[in-house]
Design brief:
Pfam family, one: NAD_binding_10
Largest sheet: 8 strands, mixed
Number of strands: 10
Protein name: SDR family oxidoreductase
Strand order of the largest sheet: 3-2-1-4-5-6-10-8
CATH architecture: 3-Layer(aba) Sandwich
Number of helices: 6
Number of domains: 1
Organism: Staphylococcus hsinchuensis
Distance between the termini: 42 Å
Structural class: alpha/beta
Domain NAD(P)-binding: 8-188
Radius of gyration: 16 Å
Order of helices and strands: EHEEHEHEHHEEEEHE
Length: 204
């Protein structure tokens, strides 16, 4: 039975992933966040909580004990967090990483929406791109997510674009992003060493 470490477990994408893992797998989950009191109650004996700070290497390294797959949905100093994740995974011989960044880091979003994206997160884009570069150069078995604007829609409806392709849609549900993560955890060869955009298809 696989053991999945979820870094940034109190984030909305992570919460969607937790629910999807509980509903669609028998995996054990290790939830990592600063304050366990912020987590909602999960009626499951498959959950273990590990408190810590993703910008503290010792905390990240300790969290890697006894896990098989890492799902990271973090914010802030994402480049520093990426460095620590890579270092700790190598130290603990954990290979499979799913790492969430943001759309727009390669100027891949066309048109007016692309301009809006750049205006909204301009200060963060270089940091998120650096984090993606660190993951791509890590030698780990990674998949990088670049989701569109996230919604709380109760739906699974998405399409995938590759790093060298223009981004297509404008939004995607967190539930859809979670499903992609769960599918990768169940089939680690899926999207292996890929940097993928995730969006809801635009209906013609």
């Amino acid at each position: 039975m696989a053991r999945v470490l979820i870094l940034g477990a109190n984030g909305e994408v992570s919460k969607a992933a937790i629910n999807s893992f509980l509903e669609n797998t028998s995996f054990t989950l290790r939830l990592f966040l600063r304050d366990a009191n912020r987590l909602p109650y999960y009626a499951s004996d498959r959950i273990r909580v590990r408190e810590g700070d993703a910008t503290n290497y010792e905390d990240v390294s300790h969290a890697m004990n006894d896990v098989d797959i890492v799902f990271a949905s973090l914010s802030g100093e994402l480049d520093k967090e990426a460095q620590y994740i890579v270092k700790a995974m190598k130290e603990k011989n954990v290979k499979r990483l799913i790492f969430v960044t943001a759309l727009g880091i390669y100027d891949e979003v066309p048109g007016e929406y692309g301009e809006w994206v750049k205006q909204q997160i301009a200060e963060m884009l270089p940091i998120y791109k650096k984090a993606a570069d660190i993951i791509e150069q890590s030698g780990l078995d990674y998949t990088i997510f670049r989701p569109a604007k996230l919604t709380q829609m109760n739906e699974v409806d998405y399409e995938i674009t590759q790093k060298n392709e223009p981004f297509k849609g404008k939004e995607v549900s967190r539930k859809s992003v979670a499903e992609v993560a769960v599918n990768i955890a169940k089939n680690p060869e899926l999207h292996l060493n890929k940097n993928i955009g995730i969006n809801k298809p635009i209906k013609e």
